Every structure is written in structure tokens, then in C-alpha cells.
Amino acid sequence: MKEYWGSLASILGVLAFCQSLLQVLFPPELRFATLKLFNRIFNMFTSYCYFDITEIDGVNTNELYNAVQLYLSSCVSTSGSRLSLTRALNSSAITFGLTNNDTLFDTFNGVTVLWEHIVTQRQAQTFSWRPLPDEKRGFTLRIKKKDKPLILDSYLDYIMEKANDIRRKNEDRLLYTNSRGGSLDSRGHPWESVPFKHPSTFETLAMDPVKKAEIIEDLKDFANGQSFYQKTGRAWKRGYLLYGPPGTGKSSMIAAMANYLGYDIYDLELTEVHHNSELRKLLMKTSSKSIIVIEDIDCSIDLSNRKKGGPNNSSSIGRSYCDPEMRSGSGVSTGEEGGNSITLSGLLNFTDGLWSCCGSERIFVFTTNHIDKLDPALLRSGRMDMHVFMSYCSFPALRILLKNYLGNAESDLDEGVLKELEEVIDKAEMTPADISELLIKNRRNKDRAVIELLEALKNKAEMKLKSGDCVREKDLNDVGEEEEEQEKRALESPKEGCDYEDSIKKEEEDEEKKIK
Ligand SMILES: Nc1ncnc2c1ncn2[C@@H]1O[C@H](COP(=O)(O)OP(=O)(O)OP(=O)(O)O)[C@@H](O)[C@H]1O
Ligand SMILES: [Mg+2]
């Protein structure tokens, strides 16, 4: 034993001597170059090559890192012995992961590779234009040199695909918002996300079944249309404009779309975005298979730049396209609160410019209560391909609500009551939101719920009728006043009328001359 300790001490002594010798031979300025040289020599003799996939790639979050993490989570859950478990806030899915500096073997197409999860503490923060996380995280992939050309590309593609599948299978849609404006978080993301749990589906959505089927068909075609869009040279995106009175189900429709397709939602708060360039950055950071939503588009942006030509005036399109002031985004009226210089042009490019194609399989949805306030350029096909009018509750929609809220089958309802409901529903112009509220209130007593609903509908229809009569009377008076006004104006300015008649006469004479 004594001998053993003695030889250990002499080995340590030799090592210490070698270290001090190295320090003398290789001063600090040479050390880095020496290490690099050793590394090269080592690489020449090793049969492996290594790939580092860091969490943050320069300034941006590395999508591949997230994909690898998700992919490995499906492998480690069965084979790993020490795992990290995570569960996002409100999420139902638990994600397995490699613990810090742990390794895992994976096999792809008969080739075995090694993954290592490396976590190190970040050095004291040097100057950076945004705060960086305390830990540096990354994966290292080790592949045999001879296998690299065989699998690397296809293996990484496979990982990306698998990660997307897992994300969709988890059924946790994410709802993103840009509440921080355009500023980035420590991982370089301008969007904040929470799990999206809206229960609205196309089954629960009360609307005309034919229209509903049309929308579902359109969504299905879109989601399966990759080759079609490729063949026709179109960007793989689609725009929906949902318009109608408040409480008719526009937001519910967006949730139903997301749940149907399994897409994430990016809820873009335009009032938080201050420049066109910020808008572009936000767009660049959205993922594929997502719905980008701008709710109440007419309220969320200063429309003064569109209104210069008048909202319904077709010349406003020409103006907005040609006016360099509008296109540049500079010097445009900034609205009352000031600072907001998003232009119509910026918004148009957002939905159908070159940048709108920086991802694929994306749906843009705008909602508004006032379609007439929107610039026609925003509504044209290619930007808003499908315009969906969400109307007051119709009879077929009411049937869906009755079934959802009271669990009523068709046969449960009295024929007479049904007929009365059918007669009065269109006249009442009640929104599905109002009707839902009535049904919720009396959901424990189905009969009472239906009777109260019928009463409310009848009252509303009567009120509508009365107010309609008043409006009609007022309109007739207004028409009379307008006619009087016109007559007065004609008498006051007879020249205007003469000019017009003269010009018509001249035109007729010219025409006759031409014929002769
Ligand atoms: N068509 C509908 N089908 C089922 N429920 C509906 C429908 N319309 C409204 N509702 C109910 O009313 C509530 C409000 O609806 P929603 O937020 O979708 O209306 P909206 O059209 O987006 O209104 P706003 O224009 O004010 O944003 C929802 O929570 C939903 O329960
Ligand atoms: Mg809404």
C-alpha cells in the first residue's frame, strides 16, 4: 500500500512538472493556437465528427435546437435512466428531456449516433443589446465520419418532421401575442405564448350549415394543398376576412379553425407595433402551420393614411400605392396618440408582399365589425381570399345553439314552438352571443329556457319593427328636405345647370359631326 501511494505521488509530481514546462514553453498568447493545433491533430485521427446545435444561434432562437429537444423527448422517455421533466404552464403534456450533460444513443437507417446535452454557465454578461439567459444550452451530435454523407441531411429533416408531429399530437396549441411590442425576449423572440385552450369547434359554432361546410372544405383544401400551391406558383397562404356585428362568433370561428387544423394562433396587436419594420420582424418570427389574426382591424390601426382618398373611393387604392409618403412609412400621419407609423402599404405587404411568404402554410384572419371602413386593397383576393359574413342568429344556427346548450334533440321541441321560433328569429336580429346568454341562464330548465327565448325574440322583433317604422318615416322626411335643398341650390346657381346642359349639347353636336 505504501508503495502504491509512493508511485501515485511521483506520477502527480511528473504531471505538475509537465504542466509548468508547458506553461513555460507555451505562453498564454500561444496557448489558444496550440489548442487549435491539438484539436486538428485529434480530428485527423478520430473517426467521428461532431455537430453543435446551440439554443441561440447568434441573436436568434435556433429552431433546430427546439426540434431536437422535442424529438429526443420521445426517445428518452423509453430508454433514458435520468430524465428532466417539464410541463408548460396550463399544459396537459409532460415533456421528457435529457438532463444536463447527459448522453443518448439513437439509431437512424441502421446508423447509430450519439447525442449529448451540454449546459454551461454563461460568462459574466458582456455588452449585449438584449439580455441573454444565464445558461448556455446546446446539443452535440456525434456521427461516424463515414456515415455523415449517408444520413446527416435526411436525419435532420426527419427530426424536424417528427418534432412537428409531436407538437401537433400534444394537442396543445399555442396562442402567441406581441404584448411587448416589437422588443425581443432573452431568447430573441418577439412573441409571448400561452397554451391555447379555446373549446370552440365547428360543431359548437352556430351558423348556416352550408356556409360552415364551405369553410371547412376550403380549410381542408388549403391544408392539403402543398403541391397545388407549388404547381401554381402561389405562396402557400390564405386570407379570411370575418365581418359582422359584435357577438356573432368571429373570434369563436378563429378558435374553431385553429382547433380543426391544429395550428397555433398569432394574435397580432397592431396598436403595439410602431413601425412597418417591426411588423415585418414579427411576421418573420411566426412559424408555419399557424393562423395570424388581427382582430378589429378597423379599430387597431390609425386609418388616416387610407382615408386620404376616402375609404370607399377606388381612387384611394391608387393613392395608397402611388403616394411615396404612404409607401415609405415615414412622415405619415401618426394618429392622435402619435408614434404609430404603420402604413397601409406596410399592412398590405404584411399580408401579400414578398415577406409574407417567408414561412408557409399560414392563414391570415382579419376581423371587423365595419367592412365598409376597410380599404379595398386590403380586401382583394390574394390578401383576403374568402369574405365570411357572420350574421345575426338564423334558424339553423339557433338549432345548433339549442342542441349545444340544452342538449335538445329536434324531437324534444314542440312543433308549434319551433315554428314560432322560425318565424320570429330573422326579424329579431339577435346575436348568437345574446341567445347563448339566455340559454345559459335557464339551462337547468329546458322548457323555461325555450319559452323565455321565444319571448325575448318576440320583444326584440317588435322593437325592431317599431324603430324601423320610425327610421322609415325619418328617411321620407329627409328625402323631402333633400329635394327642397336641391331645388333651392339649382335656383341659386343656374349657371352650373346651364354649363352641364351646354356640355351635353356640345357632346351631341360632336357626335353628329363624327357620324357625318
Ligand atoms: N356563432 C356562434 N356560435 C356559437 N357561439 C357563439 C357564436 N357567436 C357568439 N357566440 C358566443 O358568444 C360569445 C362571443 O362570441 P365571439 O367573441 O366569437 O363574438 P365576436 O363576433 O368575435 O364579437 P366581437 O365582434 O365583439 O369581437 C362566445 O363566447 C360564444 O360563446
Ligand atoms: Mg371577437
Your description of this structure?
This protein is of the alpha/beta class and 516 residues long. Helix content is 51%, strand content 16%. It contains 19 helices and 15 strands. It has a seven-stranded mixed β-sheet. The chain has a four-stranded antiparallel β-sheet with strand order 1-8-7-6, with helices on one face. Strands 2-3 form a two-stranded antiparallel ribbon. Helix 3 crosses helix 4, helix 15 runs parallel beside helix 17 and helix 17 packs antiparallel against helix 18. It is elongated and about 115 Å long. About 10% of the residues have low confidence. Magnesium ion binds next to helix 7. Belongs to the AAA ATPase family. BCS1 subfamily. It catalyses: ATP + H2O = ADP + phosphate + H(+).
Helix fraction, binned, reads 40-55%
What binds here, in terms of ligands, is: adenosine-5'-triphosphate, magnesium ion
Note the main sheet.
7 strands, mixed
- Shape descriptor reads elongated
Strand percentage: 15-25%
**Beta-strand segment tally:** 15
| Strand order across the largest sheet | 10-9-12-13-14-11-15
Q: What's the end-to-end separation, in Å?
A: 131 Å
Classify the secondary structure makeup into a structural class: alpha/beta
**Mean pLDDT across all residues, rounded?**
77
- Residue windows where pLDDT falls under 50 for at least 5 positions: 303-339, 490-504
Rg, please? 34 Å
Total helical segments: 19
